[in-house]
Amino acid sequence: EVQLVESGGGLVQPGRSLKLSCAASGFTFSDYYMAWVRQAPTKGLEWVASISYDGGSTYYRDSVKGRFTISRDNAKSSLYLQMDSLRSEDTATYYCTREGYVMDAWGQGASVTVSS
Amino acid sequence: DIVMTQTPSSQAVSAGEKVTMSCKSSQSLLYSENKKNYLAWYQQKPGQSPKLLISWASTRESGVPDRFIGSGSGTDFTLTISSVQAEDLAVYYCEQYYDTPYTFGAGTKLELK
After folding, report:
1. Do the Cβ atoms of B42 and A103 come within 8 Å?
2. A114 forms bridges with which residues in the sheet?
3. CA-nearest residue of chain B to A109?
């Protein structure tokens, strides 16, 4: 069974940093692109970033470019999202997703609140 | 960016009804080389993560009931639920994966009449 388990969420002040982690199991992690998708409270879904099989290619939405860094450790079957210079508009539940063209598996989400 | 527009934003339904919802993209999602539409549908129930229902505009994921039918091509797509069940009450999102940034529609919320 495919499982994606996020961790690292919490309350953080504007301008500070936070790092999310996602532990994957039930599939060969290195065979898949991976992505982060977020959902602000009572809002819709928003793709944040994707990373290729070996981490050699990364893709970001414009609003997080230069502030967020997606990375992976295939030996640990883990995905990460380093979030710097956080803003109030980054407040959301962040989902780790497996990207086989489509997002075909989702974690339960990690809540990130950016507030003073 | 490709803009995804979903209508209606909400719909009140009764069990057993046929439901259709629309998703339109601001540019074609049909890739000429493989003739595939890069369009997916997701279901999100309250308090849960989204779940992939349909990819390539019309291919149901394993385990998805056959009452969920995806159709359309190019810029116009439809999700049909042939006979709505109580467990189908959720928000449904379409998503284009033709190009980054991948973008989602705002969702169609199915509510009980």
Report:
1. yes
2. A12
3. B49
Q: Can you tell me the distance from the alpha carbon of A6 to that of A20, in angstroms, rounded to the nearest whole number?
A: 7
How many CA within 13 A on the CB side of residue A10? Answer: 11
Confidence class of residue A81 from pLDDT cuts 50, 70 and 90? very high
Residue B22 β-bridge partners:
B7, B78
**pLDDT digits 0-9 by tens, B12-25:** 999 999 999 999 99
Which of B29, B45, B49, B64 is the best residue to mutate to test the A interface, defined by the most A CB atoms within 10 Å of its own CB? B49
Q: Are A107 and A35 in contact (CB under 8 A)?
A: no
In this complex, is the C-beta atom of A103 within 8 Å of any C-beta atom belonging to chain B? yes
Pull the structure tokens for residue B103.
Answer: 């973008």
* Exposure of A116 in the CB half-sphere (CA atoms within 13 A): 3
Structure tokens at B16: 């057993």
